């Protein structure tokens, strides 16, 4: 079926297929066409341009007068598959406990792992599907999802099978990341080596055998996985063809960026705490820095120094980190607004970071992230707005009229 969208006030993020990411000063440029048309055939973008050259005689036409179109958000870092919630810890933090103190008391990731281990695969799927549907309505059209709340062979596989089932049942691209190295289970607290061996010798072969993940991750952080642990895990993942995407520099800078770059990571994520050497290390690499401002907001921790990163000529992507502990929100509109308000990114930089650079950080540059001929017809039609700057400016509002995934309104 052919559909023609006409009278688009502004068609945003129009790119040639050769552009897969934008860096440094280029991030301030957001290519658009005013008074535009967009032509889609089944699930694919086939043409676009000025209304002066609009094709005629198309059976299915949608009038977008006053509205803008931009590619759907590319959320390259989530933990959408989890069981229950951690509302009690939220209240504990309001009452004065820190995230670290809660984790040290057996809360945090271990609390979520206990809940997930006790939840059936069917129930876990149901809870996760609700979240996925919610974020799709908020404009997310491609998403990465991690394991890491299982922490046993069975429960990690259960999480990854749920991700696989989401991919089968929903039309947006979904990428899976194996994050067995998220926290040390209580029974391994004094036998860390034993848990790393379990990841490498038992979990990884099964994940690979069932083809359940494309990426491998580790929480490289003081009190979690050391640089040496991370090195072993990424090395082992590589033997099974898994590409690293790594949690680094959330609370401390211990060399996580360096070990990730050494393994040619696709992305390094969090980066709330960055020193000069970390930024230097990223220069000239293929590794995408990923910031998660909703996590900084929710935990009241520093924001990723976006200006330092971009001014160093590097690219930057934005993602939600949707998870029950540090970021119980999957709203990319809020992420874009918060990046502008708190990280001093311009609307153009934030939209680039949340679309084309997000697609890069999931290895999805061929499919999504821009309005490009041959890419998937995954896009947002906005409400009637004066400029795309309204998206971050009117923070907390959702300025979405409709969301198209694979050429169909959801
Ligand atoms: O990305 N930092 C590690 N993992 C998650 C949060 C884990 C949790 O508290 O459940 C994150 O923020
Ligand atoms: Fe995370």
Automatic annotation (TrEMBL):
Q: Which GO terms describe its cellular component?
A: cytoplasm
Q: Which residues bind 4-imidazolone-5-propanoate?
A: 86, 149, 182, 250, 326
Q: Which cofactor does it need?
A: Zn(2+); Fe(3+)
Presence of the UniProt keyword Cytoplasm in the record: yes
Q: What is its EC number?
A: 3.5.2.7
Entry binding sites for N-formimidoyl-L-glutamate: 149, 323, 325
Q: Which residues bind Zn(2+)?
A: 77, 79, 247, 321
The protein's location, in the record's own words, is: Cytoplasm
A GO BP term here is: L-histidine catabolic process to glutamate and formamide
Q: Keyword set for this entry?
A: Cytoplasm, Histidine metabolism, Hydrolase, Iron, Metal-binding, Zinc
Per UniProt, residues of the Amidohydrolase-related domain are: 68-409
Presence of the UniProt keyword Hydrolase in the record:
yes
For this UniProt entry, the molecular function terms from Gene Ontology, in alphabetical order, are: imidazolonepropionase activity; iron ion binding; zinc ion binding
* Known pathway: Amino-acid degradation; L-histidine degradation into L-glutamate; N-formimidoyl-L-glutamate from L-histidine: step 3/3
Which HAMAP family does the UniProt entry name for this protein? Answer: HutI
In the record, the note on similarity to other proteins reads: Belongs to the metallo-dependent hydrolases superfamily. HutI family.
PANTHER family listed in its UniProt record? IMIDAZOLONEPROPIONASE, IMIDAZOLONEPROPIONASE-RELATED
Functional description taken from the UniProt entry: Catalyzes the hydrolytic cleavage of the carbon-nitrogen bond in imidazolone-5-propanoate to yield N-formimidoyl-L-glutamate. It is the third step in the universal histidine degradation pathway.
Q: What is the protein named?
A: Imidazolonepropionase
Source organism per entry reads Tenacibaculum holothuriorum
């Amino acid at each position: 079926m052919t559909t023609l969208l006409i009278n688009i006030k502004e068609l945003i993020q129009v790119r040639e297929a050769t552009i897969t990411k934008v860096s440094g000063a280029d991030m301030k440029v957001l290519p658009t066409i005013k008074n535009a048309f967009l032509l889609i055939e089944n699930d694919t973008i086939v043409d676009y341009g000025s209304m002066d050259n609009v094709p005629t005689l198309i059976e299915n036409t949608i009038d977008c007068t006053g509205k803008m179109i931009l590619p759907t958000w590319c959320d390259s870092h989530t933990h959408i598959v989890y069981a229950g919630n951690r509302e009690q810890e939220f209240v504990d933090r309001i009452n004065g406990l820190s995230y670290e103190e809660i984790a040290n008391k057996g809360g945090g990731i271990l609390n979520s792992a206990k809940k997930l281990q006790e939840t059936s695969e069917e129930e876990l799927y149901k809870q996760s599907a609700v979240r996925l549907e919610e974020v799709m309505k908020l404009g997310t059209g491609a998403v990465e999802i991690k394991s890491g709340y299982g922490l046993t062979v069975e429960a990690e596989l259960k999480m990854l099978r749920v991700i696989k089932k989401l991919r089968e049942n929903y039309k947006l691209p979904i990428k899976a990341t194996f994050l067995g190295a998220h926290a040390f289970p209580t029974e391994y607290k004094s036998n860390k080596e034993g848990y790393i061996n379990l990841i490498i010798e038992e979990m990884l072969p099964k994940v690979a055998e069932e083809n359940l993940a494309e990426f491998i991750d580790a929480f490289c952080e003081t009190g979690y996985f050391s640089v040496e642990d991370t090195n072993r895990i990424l090395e082992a993942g590589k033997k099974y063809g898994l590409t690293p995407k790594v949690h680094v520099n959330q609370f401390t800078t211990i060399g996580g960026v360096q070990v990730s770059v050494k393994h040619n990571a696709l992305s390094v994520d969090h980066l709330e705490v960055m020193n000069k050497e970390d930024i230097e290390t990223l220069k000239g690499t293929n590794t995408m820095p990923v910031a998660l401002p909703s996590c900084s907001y929710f935990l009241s921790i520093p924001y990723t120094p976006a200006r330092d990163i971009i001014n160093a000529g590097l690219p930057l992507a934005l993602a939600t980190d949707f998870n029950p502990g540090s970021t119980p929100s999957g709203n990319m509109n809020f992420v874009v607004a918060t990046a502008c308000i708190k990280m001093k990114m311009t609307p153009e930089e934030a939209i680039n970071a949340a679309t084309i650079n997000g697609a890069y950080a999931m290895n999805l540059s061929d499919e999504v992230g821009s309005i490009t001929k041959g890419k998937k017809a995954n896009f947002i039609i906005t409400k009637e707005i004066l400029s795309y700057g309204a998206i971050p400016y009117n923070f907390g509002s959702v300025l979405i009229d409709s969301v198209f995934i694979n050429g169909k309104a959801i």
